[in-house]
């Protein structure tokens, strides 16, 4: 999966921060949804790779129980964790035990959504 993420990095639109990121969301039926970060001059109008992949899957009719694993890689080869906006999307649209595999220079790190989001706020809190 690392090689697919490396190829995908070339599609990132990271004109301003020069921090390309690629994400691939693997579904239980084997379907892969790709995402890259897309920046604009107004940062709020852009989107991170993680949410791009998740929203693409949702747009194609997939739901949280279909999501098996999320793979991430930064073009810098640094260990990268999802930002807090993406963590909110992960809590809302993925199961808390879904695994996230983050590739970096020294290898890979595996974490679950739950490990990334202690004390999270979600729709369950609004009931
Ligand atoms: Zn993000």
Structure write-up:
Helix 3 (84-93) links the parallel strand 3 (67-74) and strand 4 (99-104). The protein contains four helices and five strands, in the order αββαβαββα. It has 127 residues and is an alpha+beta fold. It has a single domain (2-126), classed as Cytidine Deaminase, domain 2, CATH 3.40.140.10. The model has no long low-confidence stretch (mean pLDDT 96). It has helices spanning 2-9, 49-59, 84-93, 113-116; strands at residues 21-27, 32-36, 67-74, 99-104, 107-112. The protein is globular, with a radius of gyration of 14 Å. A five-stranded mixed beta sheet has the order 2-1-3-4-5. Bound molecules: zinc ion (ZN). The site of zinc ion (ZN) has 6 residues, from helix 3.
In total, the number of strands is: 5
Count of distinct structural domains: 1
Helix content: 25-40%
**How many H/I helices?**
4
Q: Main sheet: which strands, in order across? A: 2-1-3-4-5
Give a topology summary:
Blueprint lengths: L1 H8 L11 E7 L4 E5 L12 H11 L7 E8 L9 H10 L5 E6 L2 E6 H4 L11
Parallel strand pairs: 3-4
Antiparallel strand pairs: 1-2, 1-3, 4-5
């Amino acid at each position: 999966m690392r090689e697919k993420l490396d190829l995908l990095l070339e599609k990132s639109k990271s004109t301003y921060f020069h921090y390309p990121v690629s994400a691939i969301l693997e579904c239980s039926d084997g379907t892969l949804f790709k995402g890259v970060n897309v920046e604009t001059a107004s940062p709020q109008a852009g989107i991170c790779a993680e949410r791009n992949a998740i929203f693409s899957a949702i747009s194609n009719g997939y739901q949280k129980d279909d999501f098996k694993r999320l793979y991430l890689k930064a073009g810098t080869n640094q260990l990268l964790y999802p930002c807090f906006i993406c963590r909110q999307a992960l809590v809302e649209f993925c199961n808390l035990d879904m695994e996230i595999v983050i590739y970096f220079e020294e290898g890979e790190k595996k974490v679950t959504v739950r490990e990334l989001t202690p004390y999270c706020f979600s729709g369950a809190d609004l009931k």
